Amino acid sequence: MTVSFTLNGRARSFSGDPRASLLEVLRDTYRLTGAKEVCGEGFCGACMVRIDGHPATACLVPMGTLEGSDLRTIEGIGTEAELNPVQQAFVDFDVVQCGMCFPGMVMTLTHFMKDNPHPTREAVKSALTGNICRCTGYERIIDAVMSLSGAAHPVTEVQP
Amino acid sequence: MTQSDVVFHRPETIAAALSILASAAPRPAIPLAGGTWIMRAALRGEDTDKTFVSLANIASLHGIENTGGGLTIGAMVSHAALAQALGADPAHDGLRMACAASANPAIRHRATIGGNLCSDGFMAPDLVPALMALGAMVTLQAPSGERRLPIADFLRGRGARPAAEILTHVHLPPPRGTAAHARALLRQAGEYPVAVVSVLAGCRDDGTCQSLRIALSAVEPAPRRWETLENALLDRPLDPEAARDAAQARIQDLHPRDGVDASGWYRARLLPQLVQRAFADLTRPTAKGDPQ
């Protein structure tokens, strides 16, 4: 069985075990290591990617379900020269500590800000219930996200 | 590759899925819905070499239909989609809250109502107690035919289901009464609730309670109704403090489980407060609608 999909804008096909998780395949086959393997249970959000425009924990998605899907990982949403707005806000607010959770945070919050350009702090916290950070205590992350509310250039998911 | 080597199927009809499930030797075959439970089998120390029969391409499992004043919900409808689809009827407030607050946003987008019901061993589902409170039924299809049964009966037999059987639809009766769903988390994020109380109450004009269902999740190994508490509160006005005290007086009816997240005694300690919170929500309808 071959599964064909688009990964960060490039057509790909996968013919390994279709029961393998997307996370395993991203990391081991495509060497995209931005999505992290941490809890393996869908709790922590460190492996968050986007499937057909919606955040998903890659650890819980079997490859066989991805025929025809459009996949986007942290490697596909910004460049070093031009960070995505959430990434840039994280830099500006000096948010990042160990970095393990941040690719997933960016994936979740980019999607959230596209749909909710003027959120309350409480709404940001609700959006983050699937992304655990064990370093920062979250408040600075939320400060950074709130700075994007009403920004001149609202957050979009348009790709570079 | 021979047929028996195929480990992942994507049938487009229920009949085709049942036929694969019925003949999947040498490997056991399991229906795959959202995958959020099955993909963690290795963490639970379970056999992972099973044939996956994905239900994603079966169109009839994705719909939500009005049927005789009630709703028929396809097993593949996600928590998030159901939260969006439920109208403003107060009888659906508990289920809507369960769908909109369970797990986290990414999981709610993938996990399905059918998966929530079929995940034998998952001790803290949110949708199941809300469905029990609503008096929901499920339809099961097998090669021999179709049957419909109440959720409690389905749960009782869940550990010994035939391999070739698919839960296809969930049926909600016409909405009557007001519902509430109270859940206790140790933190706000990244975990299951340690106790859930889901209630549906119908009141007479004089304010006394004419019908009442109270369902629990996460407290015992499987969700259950709390019938002795229901009986104690019937024919009385909805009163949060009285409901709490009645729950406290009947806590010995339950067998709360010990788990890594919380001990049994702790779940028992929380429950009267959760019952009070649910009843306070029932009596203050304007305060509802914000799941977090």
Notes on the protein architecture:
The complex is a heterodimer of chains A (160) and B (292). Chain A is α+β, with helices and mostly antiparallel strands and 160 residues long. Chain A folds into two domains: 3-76, Ubiquitin-like (UB roll); 85-146, [2Fe-2S]-binding domain (DNA polymerase, domain 1), CATH 1.10.150. Chain A has five helices and five strands; from the N terminus they run E-E-H-E-E-E-H-H-H-H. Chain A has a five-stranded mixed beta sheet, covered by helices on one side. In chain A, a hairpin with a 2-residue loop joins strand 3 and strand 4. Chain A is globular and about 45 Å long. In chain A, 48% of the residues are buried. In chain B, a hairpin with a 2-residue loop joins strand 6 and strand 7. Chain B is an alpha+beta fold and 292 residues long. At the A-B interface, strand 4 and helix 4 of A face helix 4 of B.
Can you summarize this structure?
The complex is a heterodimer of chains A (160) and B (292). Chain A has helices spanning 22-28, 85-92, 102-115, 121-127, 139-146; strands at 3-7, 10-14, 48-51, 54-57, 70-72.
